[in-house]
Each structure stands twice: as C-alpha cells, then as structure tokens.
Amino acid sequence: MRVPPAKIHIPEEDRKQILAAIDGCLTSGQLTLGKHGAAFEEALARTAGTRHAVATSSGTSALEIIFRAIGVAGGEVIVPTNTFFATPAAVEHAGGTVRFAECDPSTFSIDLDSVRALLSPKTRAVVVVHIGGIITPRMPDLRALCDAAGVALIEDAAHAHGSTLGGKPAGSFGRAAAFSFYPTKVITAGEGGMIATDDDAIDEQARVYRDQGKAGFTSNFHTLLGNNWRLSEPHAIIGASQLARLPEFIAARQRVAAIYDRLLAGTDVEPLRIPAGSTCNYYKYIALPPAGVDRAALKKTLRETYDVGLSGEVYEAPCHLQPVFGPQAAGTLPVAEELCARHICLPVSAVMSDDDAEYVVDSLVKALASQRVGAEVS
Ligand SMILES: Cc1ncc(COP(=O)(O)O)c(C=O)c1O
Question: Which of 44, 60, 66 has most ligand 1 atoms within 8 Å of its beta carbon, as the pocket-test mutant?
C-alpha cells in the first residue's frame, strides 16, 4: 500500500540492540520481572512525570489493576462513551458499574457537564481518555470536580505517550494513569502496558496484583485477587528502546500533522484543532469531512483507487451502543454518536514522507469530489 493506515518503526540499529539484549535474557534465563522491566518502568515514570511506574502485560490489565487498587467494586465509574472497549470492560472486570458520559466535540474528550450530571454518591472514579493524544484543557476543571466529590480521576493515556497540557505530561494529572504499548500506538513493546502514579499504595498494590496477587515474588501467600499481568523482559526491552525514540517519533508525527493542517485549510474537511497550551503526539490525526459523507465509501475509494489507508477511528461506534453493556441506548449520547459516525483519521507514522502526506490530502480531496459527483448523478 502506498500509504498504509499506520507503520510500526523500529530502526535497524535499535533492532540490533534489542536482539542483543534479548539474547542476554535467553542466556541468563531472567525472562520476566527483571532489570529490563525495572529500567522501562523508571524511564516511563520520567516521561509521565510520576514517582512510580509499574509495567503490566497490556494497557487493559493496567486499567483493571488501577480499578481494583482504588476499589471500584460495588460502585460506579464514569467513562466516556467514545473510547476503546477495554476502558469500560476493565471497570466491569474489577467489579464496578460503568456510567457512560458524553463527548466534548472540541477535543473528543469526556464532557465536563456530562460528568457533573452523572456524579452520585456511588461514583468511585472518573476516567479521562486522551483521545488521539489530545489532553483536554478541561483537565484542571475535571480534577477540581473529582476532588470536590472525593472521587479518583484516572487517565487512560493509551493514546497519549509524551503529550502535554500546560507543560505537564500525560499520566501526571490524576490518581493513576494507564499506558498501552500495543503495536499501533505511538511507541510499542509488542504487547504491554504501564501504570503511572504518585500514589505509594497504588504502586505497591499494582506490583502484587500483576503477579497473581502474591505478597512477594518468592512468596506463596496470595493477598489480593490478582492475575498473570506481568510484562516479560523481551517486551520490556522493546518498550524501553521505543521509549527512547519517543521525542523523535512525536516530532516526525507533528511534522506530518502540520502538512495536513496547511493543506486541509483550503478544503471543506475540518481538522480537530489542538487546544492552546496542549502539545499532541498525533497518535491520530482526527478530521471531520462535511456532513453527509459516506465514510465507508470514502475509505473504500481511498483504498482501492488511491492506495491510501485511513487509520482506525476513535471510535467507529460509541461504547454505550455495544450490546455487551446492556440494552441499546441509541440517541442518549447524541454528540458522541454523531462524531463517532462521522470523523476520519488520516494516516500518520514516524516515517511518513512529506510527499506521502501531500498525496493523502490530494487523494482525500479527489475522493470527496468523486463522491459528490456520484451523489449528484444518482
Ligand atoms: C483508549 C485505550 N484504552 C485501552 C487500551 C488497551 O490497551 P492494550 O491493547 O494494550 O490492552 C487501548 C488500546 O488498544 C486504547 O486505545
């Protein structure tokens, strides 16, 4: 494909170093919970601006551990409906009940008024998901609201490695944050996750939860209902290598985004603006084509005629309409429903050329024009 939806980039020199380090693990037999995991944790804590970081098997397990550690069982957790399934699922796996909140169209983040309306004596936490890598400027208001209500503010920072608001990095705004290192993310470990927190109790409990709830590595006393949520040393080696590239990857993605911003200015496609005071890692470049555009048909034309793959949406359908969360509630969160159905995500990667970025916008404009002509003819 001339422009794929995303491209994982592990430079050749890094691959050599990764393979040498993995060889060391294979030789020593230290394949999990070793020095590489500890080094990855230290590096991520520095990036997230927190005192602690705990490596886990995935972003999903990082979320579930956080919800278990803060004790959501029997209570409610307010979650934005436009998020990945893992965010609300982790709440329910930890014994909590999800209450879905509306989307703020200016950032695709959770809507402050919706959170205010859903807060109740049963609320244990509010989750902010930094969709596409954008940290909402409403973060201080959300924090104040949570503090006043005595509930935890949790960040799902799966999209937001290295993004900032007011100079503060993603991961440092709430009681705890979950990162993901799934292959499509800005940086990857193959699979993996991380909990970032300043809270000593969450740090301690997370280490117990991720290792089958055992009180210590060599102990056979299970004090918490944990699981095998450990991160292996080979995964930690890949993750640490990628984390060292984060500033460079973000700069490359920002360069692509700047080209999109410039070229889309003369079209009827409206990019989601990065709020003043925020820096975005451009996990996604989110844009709104004119109302009425058939997104599936647009994506098909771009793929088949122009060899361009649009990136996955954030998200194609809101979670409150997913059957697993109960009876369909269509129409109850109309802003999220409309934005989920309408937005597109242009391809971005750390190795995308300026030419390809220009080609994407050119192809998008032509594909939209051909859809308009098709609509007039039929
Ligand atoms: C917003 C969000 N939360 C949680 C997750 C789960 O992360 P993982 O795939 O590492 O379990 C993802 C990643 O896919 C995500 O995008």
Answer: 60
Asked if 99 and 224 sit in the same domain, the reply is: yes
* Same domain as 328, residue 195: no
Verify whether ligand 1 is closer than 6 Å to residue 189 (CB atom): no
pLDDT tens figures, 271-330: 999 999 999 999 999 999 999 999 999 999 999 999 999 999 999 999 999 999 988 788
Atom of ligand 1 at shortest range from CA of 180: 10
Q: Is the CB of 88 under 6 A from ligand 1?
A: no
Separation of alpha carbons 365 and 306, rounded Å = 11
Distance (angstroms) between ligand 1 centre and the Cα of 158 equals: 5
Q: Tell which atom from ligand 1 comes closest to the C-alpha of 192.
A: 10
Residue 330 pLDDT: 82
Q: How far is the CA of 125 from the centre of ligand 1 (A)?
A: 18
Residue 90 included in any domain? yes
Domain count, the chain: 2
**Phi, psi values for residue 352, rounded to 5°:** -85, 135
Residue 87 beta carbon below 6 angstroms from any ligand 1 atom:
yes
| Atom 12 of ligand 1, nearest CA residue | 158
282 and 332 co-located in one domain: yes
Tens-place pLDDT, residues 50-64? 999 999 999 999 999
Phi, psi of 128 (to 5 degrees): -105, 130
* Closest residue CA from atom 10 of ligand 1: 59
Output the residue whose Cα is nearest ligand 1's atom 14.
182
Mean pLDDT of the chain: 97
Q: What is the pLDDT of residues 210-245, one digit of tens each?
A: 999 998 878 899 999 999 999 999 999 999 999 999
Do residue 126 and residue 210 come from a single domain? Answer: yes
Predicted confidence band of residue 378 (pLDDT cuts 50, 70, 90): low
